[in-house]
Design a protein that fits this description.
Elements (H helix, E strand, L loop, with lengths): L1 H10 L20 E9 L10 H15 L4 H4 L7 E3 L3 E8 L1 H8 L6 E4 L2 E4 L3 H7 L4 H6 L9 E6 L40 E6 L12 H5 L9 H10 L3 E6 L2 E6 L7 E6 L6 E2 H14 L3 E4 L1 E2 L12 H11 L3 E5 L18 E6 L3 E9 L4 E5 L1 E2 L9 E5 L10 H5 L8 H4 L3 E4 L8 H10 L4 E5 L9 E3 L2 E5 L1 H13 L4 E4 L3 E4 L27 E4 L3 E4 L18 E4 L2 H18 L5 H10 L21 H4 L6 H4 L4 E2 L4 H11 L3 H8 L22 E6 L6 E9 L6 E7 L5 E5 L2 E3 L6 E9 L6 E10 L4 E10 L1
Parallel strand pairs: 6-10, 6-12, 7-10, 12-14, 14-15, 15-26, 18-22, 19-20, 20-21, 21-23, 30-37
Antiparallel strand pairs: 1-3, 1-4, 2-3, 5-11, 5-13, 8-9, 16-17, 16-24, 16-25, 19-24, 27-28, 29-31, 31-35, 32-34, 32-36, 33-35, 36-37
Helix pairs in contact: 1-2, 8-15, 9-10
Length: about 775
């Protein structure tokens, strides 16, 4: 009866309907899959029996029938995805004109096409702690909770992996409301006390509105790509002794929080991740009861959407409303600036770095010289035999431009001249990926490839048992000089060996996307850095020709690189902190990780990037995560949902849309301008621009004491020459009754150099350091 009354009350309101005038689909218009976002749910209309969901779907169908002629296209009056827990909305097949009409509806916040988002694809945890076993010993602490639940939105999961065994894990938390969905190759028995949930979606549904039969008939939460299995085990995999990738990176594989529960949401395929499906997975994860969501996915940095048309930003905002933390990868479009994605201030954005482990491959030249390069290859070449060595341009096929042949373009090499030789390829054109170059040379029956690539040499490429090695420009010049000075140049590429305690580390990965953020520079992004280069974690045991050393079975583990691998490291660290500090909110956990991050490498020098230059906060965020130190940060910067609503006001969104997002009668501040974004109580500071001729720019912050109540902190400023930075007050004394204290930071740039000026403010009480990084763009 209650549901019926609610339904009738919805349909009795004439302003809910859209007139048919001008809205019927044109015969010439094609349909696409669109997301219709309608803001926060109404908690009054939600009941345990799903009453809100029933009302919503009926209302959405009525909405569709008002713009689609039922007599002509009744089959299109259907809902693909219904969002009904954390936020309201749906997805459906619409024409562009229908989407435009819907976007003007009073109940609609935004309408956007279902675009395809991309996946951002052992020793790392020990490296983060500086001393092996410290985090592991903390994770065994009896005071830690194993009730933390991580939702992994990715390509699914391989449940048989030893990383997901549940030995020693207690009963599933009673608050868990999720499901273990069966599929043609996935049973409910595949879930356990570790892998407590698994959902899948029809990810064959693309933005064109077409859905393959296989996607419907063979739906399953099982991972057939490997990305989701890898990220899940990195974040929260159980301890697995003697794990390795065919002998490389041997050791105990484990996640950052091995007792944490995993819930897998398969929203992606090898083609990518439909944005409408990502939203549905986020809505489900929040409803199921996860504590945090890990998303190693993002839109192309060239086509970034604003916050109210970005599915991850929308889902993450409502997750934050519900107390669920969202951690995302920054993207793999580095090293260019303005490439960072997932930059909403309520998202924890992660850049990627290397660890102190290298995978070296030795090249033996015929003149006796030895050159070290980087790769992961299981070559059967040995010192006893050498092969002819040629440069790509010297073995070009007929009528091929020299520039294409030297870069080993597809179709550029003469297989008769290449067969049986080792080919040197340049990388003047980064549009042709190294995987393609490797395949071009391999298909021409060569014995191996040496790639000269200064940028990516620090990120080892896995070539299976085909001989491959990557060198920098200096080493490449030596090899080319040898070819040019020898009548019969030869070479041998030896199998890869692992090198531990490599220095310097961490180094910002070349691929890791850089700030500043495109949408606003007044929030510093990325937030933080974590290991993302050659990370050993669980893998689906698939058999791919050429990828497995001869005579060996498919490995249960593999080495992958990407901000996709960095993101679950931060997720695992956040889960570890949540297990020890269960009352801490997502903003407190993020603040604790950011203000305690490490700013030095293992040589006690400043962090560097892949070009060996000093790295800046647009590359590293505040630095490398340090989970143990983050357990006792001393002071934290808390941010409320209201602060995020103020951010949306400052950014320039209409108050009507913001109220729909919040489902409150929130009012924007009278003065709402973009420069006030810098005053959001973020654990870092970013100002753009700071005019050289303007008066002092004052930024406000408030710290909350989560350490001993009788603490006194003194501020110390590290600022570049010419930029005057002052903290007021520069001394804060906390007593038992005083928990929160505001302070101001003034910036004066009259004598500062133009461009970005980076520095930090450190609050120190004699034991705890609270470091706040700043970025100031002086004009």
């Amino acid at each position: 009866m209650i549901n019926l009354l609610l339904l009738l009350s919805f349909f009795s309101l004439p302003w809910l309907l859209i007139t048919l005038s001008g809205a019927s689909a044109s015969n010439h218009e094609t349909t696409k899959h669109y997301v219709v976002y309608m803001g926060a749910t109404d908690p009054i209309s939600v009941n345990e029996n799903g009453g809100h969901a029933q009302v919503s779907e009926s209302f959405y169908l009525q909405l569709l029938s008002s713009i689609i002629n039922p007599s002509q296209e009744s089959e299109r009056i259907s809902i693909v995805h219904n969002y009904n827990h954390a936020f309201r909305g749906f997805s459906a097949l619409l024409t562009q004109s229908e989407a435009s009409v819907l976007s003007d509806h009073s109940e609609v916040v935004s309408v956007f096409p279902d675009t395809m988002l991309q996946l951002h694809t052992t020793r790392s945890w020990d490296f983060l702690e500086g001393k092996a076993g410290r985090l592991s010993s903390w994770s065994s602490n009896k005071h830690l909770s194993d009730d933390v639940i991580i939702g992994i939105i990715d390509t699914g999961i391989w449940p048989e992996s030893p990383s997901f065994k549940d030995e020693g894990v207690g009963p599933v938390p009673s608050r868990w409301k999720g499901a273990c969905m069966e599929g043609f190759d996935f049973k409910k028995s595949n879930c356990n006390r570790k892998l407590i949930g698994a959902r899948y979606y029809n990810v064959g549904l693309l933005s064109s509105g077409n859905q393959s039969h296989d996607a419907k008939a063979k739906g399953s939460a099982r991972d057939t790509v490997g990305h989701g299995t890898h990220t899940a085990s990195t974040a929260a995999g159980a301890r697995v002794a003697n794990a390795s990738y065919y002998g490389l990176a041997k050791g105990t594989a484990r996640g950052g929080s091995p007792s944490t529960r995993i819930a897998s949401y398969k929203a992606c395929s090898s083609e990518g991740c439909p944005s409408a499906t990502i939203l549905k997975a986020m809505d489900d994860a929040i409803k199921d009861g996860v504590d945090m969501i890990s998303i190693s996915i993002g839109i192309d940095s060239l086509f970034q959407s604003d916050y109210l048309n970005d599915p991850i930003a929308i889902g993450a905002f409502h997750a934050e409303q519900m107390g669920v933390m969202v951690i995302c990868s920054a993207g793999n479009d580095g090293p260019d600036p303005y490439t960072v994605v997932n930059t909403a201030p309520w998202v924890f954005t992660v850049a990627a770095s290397s660890i102190d482990r290298d995978f070296q491959t030795t090249i033996l030249l015929g003149n006796g010289r030895t050159i070290k390069g980087s790769s992961i290859n299981f070559s059967n070449q040995s010192r006893s035999k050498a092969y002819p060595l040629v440069f790509g341009k010297d073995v070009a096929s007929k009528f091929t431009p020299e520039a294409e042949a030297r870069n080993c373009y597809p179709g550029s090499l003469d297989s008769k001249k290449v067969a049986g030789k080792i080919v040197v390829c340049a990388n003047d054109d980064p549009t042709v990926r190294r995987r393609i170059k490797k395949l071009v040379v391999e298909d021409a029956k060569a014995k191996g490839v040496i790639l000269i690539d200064e940028v990516e040499k620090g990120v080892p490429f896995d070539s299976g048992f085909f001989s491959f090695v990557e060198v920098g420009n200096d080493e490449g010049s030596q090899i080319l000089n040898y070819i040019n000075s020898s009548k019969k140049p030869t070479a041998t590429i030896l199998p890869t060996v692992e090198v531990l305690r490599h220095r310097p580390a961490p180094v910002v990965a070349s691929f890791s996307s850089r700030g500043p953020a495109q949408l606003t520079e007044n929030i510093l992004k990325p937030d933080i850095m974590a290991p993302g280069v050659a990370i050993l974690a669980a893998m689906i045991p698939k058999s791919v020709q050429g990828a497995i050393p001869i005579g060996l079975k498919p490995s249960e583990f593999t080495l992958k690189s990407g901000t996709s691998m960095a993101c679950p490291h931060v997720t695992g660290a956040a889960a570890f902190i949540k297990s020890a500090r269960p009352r801490w909110t997502s903003s407190i956990i993020r603040s604790a990780l950011m203000t305690t991050a490490t700013e030095y490498n293992n040589m006690r020098k400043s962090l560097t990037n892949s070009s060996n230059d000093i790295a800046n906060p647009h590359e590293t965020g505040v630095g490398e995560i340090n989970p143990i130190k983050a357990l006792n940060p001393g002071l934290v910067f808390e941010i409320t949902v209201e602060n995020y609503l103020q951010f949306l006001c400052y950014y320039g969104y209409p108050e009507k849309n913001i109220r729909s997002m919040a489902n409150t009668q929130f009012s924007c501040p009278k003065l709402s301008i973009e420069e006030l974004i810098s005053n959001i109580n973020y654990p870092s500071i970013s100002i753009s621009p700071l005019k050289r001729h303007q008066a002092v720019k004052v930024i406000k912050r408030t710290v909350t004491n989560v350490g001993p109540f009788n603490s006194t902190y003194i501020a110390k400023v590290h600022s570049p020459e010419g930029l005057v930075v002052k903290v007021t007050p520069d001394k804060i004394a906390f007593t038992k009754g005083l928990k929160r204290v505001p302070f101001q930071v003034s910036f004066y740039g009259k004598e500062a150099p133009s461009g970005y000026n980076f520095g930090s403010i450190t609050w120190f009480d004699g034991r705890r350091s609270v470091r706040v990084v700043f970025s100031v763009n002086v004009e």
